Automatic annotation (TrEMBL), chain A:
<protein>
    <submittedName>
        <fullName>MinD superfamily P-loop ATPase</fullName>
    </submittedName>
</protein>
<keyword id="KW-0479">Metal-binding</keyword>
<dbReference type="GO" id="GO:0051536">
    <property type="term" value="F:iron-sulfur cluster binding"/>
</dbReference>
<dbReference type="Pfam" id="PF01656">
    <property type="entry name" value="CbiA"/>
</dbReference>
<dbReference type="InterPro" id="IPR017900">
    <property type="entry name" value="4Fe4S_Fe_S_CS"/>
</dbReference>
<dbReference type="GO" id="GO:0046872">
    <property type="term" value="F:metal ion binding"/>
</dbReference>
<dbReference type="InterPro" id="IPR017896">
    <property type="entry name" value="4Fe4S_Fe-S-bd"/>
</dbReference>
<dbReference type="InterPro" id="IPR027417">
    <property type="entry name" value="P-loop_NTPase"/>
</dbReference>
<keyword id="KW-0408">Iron</keyword>
From TrEMBL, chain B:
<dbReference type="Pfam" id="PF00037">
    <property type="entry name" value="Fer4"/>
</dbReference>
<keyword id="KW-0479">Metal-binding</keyword>
<dbReference type="GO" id="GO:0051536">
    <property type="term" value="F:iron-sulfur cluster binding"/>
</dbReference>
<dbReference type="GO" id="GO:0046872">
    <property type="term" value="F:metal ion binding"/>
</dbReference>
<dbReference type="InterPro" id="IPR002586">
    <property type="entry name" value="CobQ/CobB/MinD/ParA_Nub-bd_dom"/>
</dbReference>
<dbReference type="InterPro" id="IPR027417">
    <property type="entry name" value="P-loop_NTPase"/>
</dbReference>
<feature type="domain" description="4Fe-4S ferredoxin-type">
    <location>
        <begin position="85"/>
        <end position="114"/>
    </location>
</feature>
<feature type="domain" description="4Fe-4S ferredoxin-type">
    <location>
        <begin position="59"/>
        <end position="84"/>
    </location>
</feature>
<dbReference type="InterPro" id="IPR017896">
    <property type="entry name" value="4Fe4S_Fe-S-bd"/>
</dbReference>
Length: 287, 296
């Protein structure tokens, strides 16, 4: 079973929910940090990194001695990542989407495999939880291929919890596709609701069952709850605003460790999700 | 003309609430909401849309079953595993590279251009605003950000406005890169948490890469004074100007629910006082005011 913890709006508590749920279910799950732009899981679980792998992606490397400047590479490239200027081929690595089209169409085999570093994937264990995390190289724009690498690193048989990035565009989709359940963490504010609606739109497009956690549940209004009722989204947990929780989070502490009464709540959250996944026919979402 | 881009690394630190508040204090300015994935500024400013434009992204492959002979070349070529065994293209997985389109021996693949979102020029009670809405699950957020920043710059030029205030996206990836290149300065809104510090540090690395100066403002500073100190130490070490601290106050949420900026909601609140001081410091900062002459 794979659960993706997502939100739309940033800073609603995805990492808090993902890490506390993972610790509460210690021994039963792996945690993936797919917020590769700003991975935060390690700040809470302090995993000891056992293995690290640099992830690269294909970019064209032009073998000038073979090139006849026929421009076929530049013609097929929809991303303007390769251009022929006079008798010179210019490659713009940061624009390349690694489709390999230039290599396929080059009649002279003048395009070799080059590479651009996307970032790293790291494996470790923290607080008894196996962790896989991705970290994008600063300056790299394309998060989805790295997110897919982090996803691929997980054992598909076991239970996996994914800490997803915020937003509703391609990085989030990469962190939600093919999972069994999306847990949306929101806050009952106008911004929280607005971004939740967008994120739920994405989840519906992917046809994945979904439930809510309302964080800072007493700071705001009732519109998120009304929306949940209207859309038939189950509210699986509410976390009130509590200065102790905010302070615990701020210094990298775990709520379930410092306020043990929360451990059962996070376990129950997990069990509810498990129950819902079991009740949903499998294989309805395309991988 | 200057452009201040408000960013944070970590999401949900108060970028949009502060952007709206600055908008009350700024002189002749234009607003730009560059968080096109999850734009929220309009919820505070109730923009009246004056112009609406479609944002067209690239094409997506569509295989015509009538023309397809099932040779499988497209599937072999596709590096994004977007074509299934029945030769149906998954539009979400399709990267829009068009390699299958160009190389299909049966010429059976169409490549219709997709509408990926919309962008708007609006009037608000604070002045003009350029904003956008990226379609759900769409790509090209960076392109859309570049598009609306260009439009904001054009309008600012045309109307002789002094400053563009841009509400930026979270993270350090594609839309952020598009939002900060060429800006006059970045205002980093950071909360005093371990994740706030970590994410700020990566964002500052990115800003350095693109040679944009950074100013730091700490939101909810009183939630953890020790972390606030750490953030300020790091800022000093990296030669970033600290422009102020905003206290934790549920008033921010109340103002949001009332669809007002904090300045409008309660102009003499301690938050409003803090925000005014921060805005003053931003305007007078060497990063925003390279002539070094204080604006009176």
């Amino acid at each position: 079973m794979i659960i993706s913890v997502a939100s739309g709006k940033g800073g609603t508590g995805k990492t808090t929910v993902a890490t506390n749920m993972a610790i509460s279910m210690k021994g039963e799950c792996t945690l993936l940090d797919c917020d590769v732009e700003e991975p935060n899981v390690h700040l809470f679980l302090h995993p000891l990194i056992e293995r690290s792998e640099t992830v690269t992606t294909f970019i064209p490397e032009v073998v000038e001695s073979r090139c006849t400047w026929c421009r076929k590479c530049a013609d097929i490239c929809r991303f303007r990542a390769i251009a022929v200027v006079g008798k010179k081929v210019l490659v713009f690595p940061e624009l390349c989407h690694s489709c390999g089209g230039c290599q396929v169409v080059c009649p002279e085999q003048a395009i070799a495999d080059g590479s651009r570093e996307l970032g790293v994937v790291e494996w470790g264990t923290g607080a008894g939880v196996p962790v896989v995390q991705g970290r994008i190289r600063v300056g790299e724009a394309m998060a989805p291929p790295l997110i897919r690498k982090v996803r691929a690193a997980a054992d598909s048989d076991g239970t996996v919890i994914i800490d997803a990035p915020p937003g509703t565009s391609c990085p989030v989709i990469a962190a939600m596709r093919g999972v069994d359940f999306v847990l949306m963490v929101t806050e009952p504010t106008p911004f929280g609701l607005h971004d939740l609606e967008l994120a739920v739109g994405a989840v519906r497009l992917l046809d994945i069952p979904c439930g809510l956690v309302i964080n800072r549940a007493d700071m705001g209004d009732d519109r998120v709850r009304q929306y949940a009722r209207r859309e038939d989204l189950p509210i699986l947990m509410e976390i009130p605003f509590d200065r102790r929780i905010a302070e615990t989070y701020s210094r990298g502490g775990m709520i379930v460790e410092e306020m043990p009464e929360w451990k059962e709540k996070f376990k129950s959250l997990f069990r509810q999700i498990e129950g819902r996944v079991k009740a949903t026919p499998r294989g309805r979402t395309a991988q | 003309m200057k452009e201040l881009v408000i960013v944070s690394g970590k999401g949900g630190t108060g970028k949009t609430s502060l952007t709206a508040a600055f908008s009350c204090l700024a002189g002749r300015h234009i607003l730009c909401d560059a968080d096109v994935d999850a734009a929220d500024l309009h919820l505070l400013l109730a923009p009246e849309v004056v112009q609406r434009h479609d944002f067209m992204g690239g094409g997506k492959a569509v295989i015509d079953p009538e023309r397809c002979n099932g040779c499988g070349q497209c599937r072999d070529l596709c590096r994004f595993e977007a074509i299934d065994g029945d030769f149906i293209v998954d539009p979400i997985a399709c990267e829009g590279c068009g390699v299958c389109v160009d190389l299909c021996p049966a010429e059976a693949i169409d490549f219709p251009i997709q509408k990926c979102g919309e962008w708007f020029v609006s009037d608000t009670r604070m002045g003009p605003m350029v904003h956008a809405r990226l379609g759900i699950a769409e790509e090209n957020s960076g392109k859309l950000v570049s598009c609306i920043r260009r439009e904001a710059q054009r309008l600012a030029d045309e109307q002789d406005l002094e400053i563009i205030i841009t509400d930026g996206p979270p993270g350090i990836g594609c839309p952020v890169i598009a939002a900060i290149g060429g800006a006059t300065a970045l205002l980093l809104v950071v909360e005093p948490t371990v994740s706030g510090l970590h994410d700020m540090s990566r964002l500052v690395d990115l800003a350095r890469h693109f040679r944009v100066p950074c100013l730091l403002c700490i939101n909810k500073f009183d939630l953890n004074l020790e972390m606030t100190q750490k953030l300020e130490d790091e800022a000093r070490e990296r030669k970033m100007q600290i422009v102020g601290r905003v206290p934790f106050d549920p008033l921010i949420t109340e103002a949001m629910i009332a669809a007002r900026s904090v300045i409008e909601y309660q102009h003499d609140s301690r938050i409003a006082v803090a925000v005014r001081e921060i805005w003053h410091n931003i305007v007078a900062s060497p990063a925003m005011n390279s002539l070094g002459i204080r604006i009176m």
